[in-house]
Structures are given as C-alpha cells and as structure tokens.
Amino acid sequence: MLQRLREGISGPVAWAILGLLALVFAVWGINMDFTPTTFAVKVNGEEIPAEPIRQAVQSQISQAQQNFPGDLPEELQTQIRNQVVEQAVLERLLAQRTEEQGYRVGDIELSRSIREMPVFQVGGQFSMDSYQARIRAAGYTTEAFEEQQRRRFEMQQLESSIVESSFVTDAELESYVRLDQERREVDWIGFQAADFIDDIEIADADIEARYEASPELFQTEDQVDIEYVEIRLDELAAGVDVSEDELMEFYEAERSRSPELFVTEERRKARHVLIAVDDDTDEAAALEKAESVLSRLKAGESFEEVATSESDDSGSAAEGGDLGWVERGMMVAPFEEALFALDTGELSQPVRSRFGYHVIRLDELEAGSEKTFDSARAELEEELRRRMAEDLYYDRGEELAALAFENPDSLGPAAEALGVDVQSVTGVTRAAGPDVAAEAQVRDAAFSTDVLEGGENSPIIELAEDHAVVLRVTDHRLPETRPLAEVRDTILQGLKDEAAREQLRLLAEQAEKRLKDGEDARGLADDIGGQYSPRESLGRTSTGIPAQLTAALFAASVPADESAVIETVDVPGGVAVLRLFSVSPGKMSDLDEEAREALRERLAREAAFRELSAYMAQLRSEAAVVVVDNQIE
Fold first, then answer.
1. Per residue in 215-244, pLDDT tens?
2. Residue 267's closest CA among 327, 213, 314, 226?
3. Among 83, 226, 562, 607, which residue has the fewest nearby CB atoms (within 10 Å)?
4. pTM of the entire predicted model
5. What phi, psi does 574 have (nearest 5°)?
6. Alpha carbons 95 and 84: distance in angstroms, whole number
7. Residue 48 in 3-state DSSP?
8. What's the CA gap between 403 and 55, in Å, rounded?
9. Cα angle vertex 302, ends 300, 307, to 5°?
10. Is residue 569 classed as helix, strand or coil in its secondary structure?
C-alpha cells in the first residue's frame, strides 16, 4: 500500500518492514531464503544475499528510531549494521557446523514445533489459515520458512549438546560458596543532607553572581509554533460508499483469489508410532517391527503405552504418540494420505515415509466449513472501503504535495481544495512536542532550513503508510536568557546542594579521623549529627541497606589485624562512614541439599553460556568472512 505515494512524492520516507517480519527476525533470525542477486557477506565461501541483510538492518534501525529523540546518530546506525551482519555470520557458521556434524530434524518434530508457536495459534490452537497468512505476509513461502526453521532447530541441537555437557565440580562449587555466602561484620555512621539543608543560608549576592556568571544555564529552548494539513486513510475510508453489488463482487473475487481465507480446513487429531529406518534398523526389520506394533494395538494394548515404549519419534513418544491436531500440508505426503483416509478410531497399516514406518490412529475429526458472505460481510466491507480509499489517498497525497509546493507561503489553498482544516500545534522544540509534533520527522521538518528560515511549506511527510502531513512554521522563538526572578529558586536550590555536599564531605572527614583515633562511634554520631547503625553481620544479598554501601563493603580490603577498615561511601542523599571489622567465608554446611543443587545448576548454566560463547568465538576466529559494505547501506 502507498508504494505509488512513496514514488510520486518527495520528502522523508520511512521504510516499513512488515510487523511479522520484524517478529521473525527477533525470534527466528534473518530470512536468508530470498533469491540472491548480490551478496552482502561471504562465510567460508558461502554467500549470504544482500537484500535480507538490508531489510533486517532497516528494521532494527526503525525500531531504534522509535525510542530515540531526533535523528538516529550515524554511529548508532553503524553499530546496528555491524550487529546484524555479525548475527548473520554466526548463524551461517552454526548452520555449516550442524551440516558437517550431521544434526537432523525430522518433519514430524518440525511440524510439532511450528504448531506450538503462539504466533500461529488462534484460541490456543494451531491454525493453518493463520500460519499460511502470516508466512505470506512476512515474505516467505511455507517451504522456505519450514526449511529455515529446520536449520534453526538443528542449530539448537548443536547448542544443546554444548550446554548439556557443562558441569560444576565440588571444588568449584565450594570456592564459589566461600565468596558468594561470605559475611562481613560492619557498623556505620550515616549523614543525610536533608537533615541540615534547610538551615543553609544563601546570600542574594551569591544567587545573582551565579546567574551572571553562567547565563547559558538559564536559556529557554528554541521553540516554534506550526500549522499543518494532514490526510488519513482511515478517515477517507469512512466516507467511501460501498454498494451491495460491489461487496458481493469483492467477496467472490477474494474467495477465488485466496480460498484458504474463506474456509476452515478439516483437521484430524492423531497418534502414531514411528519405527525408524536407520543405521541400526534396516528396511525389513523396521517393517517387521511396525507390523508387530500394529498387531499388539489390534489386540487391545494401550496405544499410549506402546508409543511410549516403541516409538522412535522422541517428541511424540513422551506424549503417548500424540501429534495433536493435523491439517493438510503439515505432514509428509505418505503420512498425510494415510491419515486423511482413516475413520475415527481406525488404525493404519504401516506407512513408509523417508523416516521409517508409521502406525497411525485417528482419534478425532473436525470437518471444515466455509465462511459465507453474510458471516464475512463486516470484515469484507471494512477491507473494501480501505482498498477503494487507497487510490483516493494517493490522489489526495499528490494534490496536497502539489498545492503546498505551488503555494509555499500558505496551507490555506491545500486545506480548502481537500476540504480539511488547517490544524496547529504550539511550543514545539527540537526534542519534543505535543500531538503530531511528537513525531521526530515533524520536528525535523519544522526546524529544517527551508521551513524555519525560508518560511516555506514542508515537503509531504509520511508518518505511516496511512498518514501524511504537510506543515509550516508560524512563529519562531529564539533561545533567550530567562529573567532572574524566574530561575531564582532553581539557582538557590543548586547553591544549597553544593553547600550541603561540602558539609557532608567535612563531616565524613571528621568522622573518619575521630574513629581512627578510637572514639566511640555511637557517641560520635550523636555529637556531630549522624545516624549510627550498630555492628552486624551482612551478606551480599542483605536487604535494608543502600546498595552503594553493600558494594563498597564487599569491595573493601580484608582487615589485616585487629584494626577495622574505615571508608566513606556516597549513598542516596548523603554519605556513610563504615567500619569493616571481620570477614567470614561462606560454608557449604550452611546450605541444605536443595539450595546446593539449585546453586550447582545455576553455575552450570553460567558455565554453559561461557562455553557456548567461547565455541562461537572460535568458529568466528577460524572463519573466512568477507563483508561487502556497499551492499548493506
């Protein structure tokens, strides 16, 4: 939608990657199954096409731009490009390694994994309609998507083999516990600026001196008021009249073009037992075993128990052979043909697929149904109105751009011709603005040279696929020094804060010196206005004390003799002077068996992450990688 508007109207253009493609990138990586014309990266001689890399880069930049005021810095854009390229390289290296080491994912395991993805479910159940529609919307074919997912799951197998091999020795666990469960005995005196800041007096002369010395600190922001004309596709669509004949014609055309969107496919709930044909079991032996399984099932043995004990499909065997709901196109052809020929409760003969022999039972059947014109009417009408409005939106966009250009000093002619109001926004700065000026593109245009200084209308700005504006600046207020009366309280508070920080420094110095001289801490705190916290033993996760104090406490050196270690620490709103008396290492005996095992598992996961990172780093260091930068930008 709006491709012609992008081509026909000058001005800033925001690339829009389909929402699902962004989701696929975030969850599944970059779609490398585009037909390659040029390559962006070559990994060990294998080329990665440029187009998916460019799309992934633009998608990530667009997402980052939404959370960044103004233009995204070039440095950050370069960082995003490098990260996308590096991800693509690492994924290709993993794919190459899984191929070398023979990792494989079968169709049934792949189908189960895809069916469990929430993005393809409706009401908690897998929907073939949703699956096919979303895959098409993301620019995939089902074959390309499923092959990509197969590679992804194979890479996960490789990763799991590394992760699951990680372990933590008893010595490593004990060493960690000594540090992690360490206790430190401490007391401290705290000083808070709030206890005395109200008593600090600042002379008027000091306020005036600060104001005169640093006028740049008290400047107003550069501000503009703008007026704008906008067009919205939804508003145009609401005014489009659709006749009953047009609606019926649209229904028939859509049903002919995409029949799968107007039917609920028949689906079947099934179980199976797979007897694999592999290096351990040849064709004849697998068939013989499958026939034996079928005989046992016909004799009345529990399908669930037989599948659990005999099936070579580890994914479904754990579920008693349950495959869940299956629709056409989800399984390999021989399996599908056999399943869709069964009656409810019927067992199939052994069915040969490339994985081996399957014995299948149909448990439930849900017949398909067709969406009638009446049931689809509201949805069809909304879509038809929108489609009919698209040409009108394009025409209005061209007209708005042309009239704004032909009448550069006014938006009146454009608004009158389009039958819309000229709207306005005040108090827009370079960093923020209300309403439409909340968009960075609007603020950038408002502060551009031609618009701000030349007094011209902006080019048309496409804020979304269905929303565009043209604006002009009606008033510009340059930065100026705010009156002293307006900023006096701010300066006063700043000077008080500075005086309070200095007083805190002096109090801490005094407390440190007197504690080192052996003075009683509680009496000292009472004497100079501090709050004394009595001696206690603290751990790294102790609560009720400032995090800064905990960090300083466990970073402090261990007392070398009977003398305490004394340090000053900045804490929220003040300072604390702490005394560290002793350090007690953690003991394994202090943890029960459950806590020890939970800790061992956590450390093993952390070790696994380090090992996987090291493995990937080694693959990367040994790889021959060529990046063609000009194919990515």
1. 999 999 999 999 999 999 888 888 888 888
2. 327
3. 562
4. 0.53
5. 180, -150
6. 17
7. strand
8. 34
9. 125
10. strand
